[in-house]
Amino acid sequence: xxxxxxxxxxxxxxxxxxxxxxxxxxxxxxxxxxxxxxxxxxxxxxxxxxxxxxxxxxxxxxxxx
Length: 65
Description:
The chain is mainly alpha-helical. The chain is 83% helix and 0% strand. It has one domain (3-64). It has helices at 3-13, 18-46, 51-64. It is elongated, with a radius of gyration of 15 Å.
């Protein structure tokens, strides 16, 4: 999610103070990525599957924003 997308959504929701909202949104997104990768990591232990690659791609996504 880009800063512009966050700002656009926050404006539609009626938020002000965009800087703190952007920081908060990034924290939420990071937490969600952590949960998604945890699930993918657990899945690959039980079932040999390309989910290891999925988890790695989710982690990289946090570095691309």
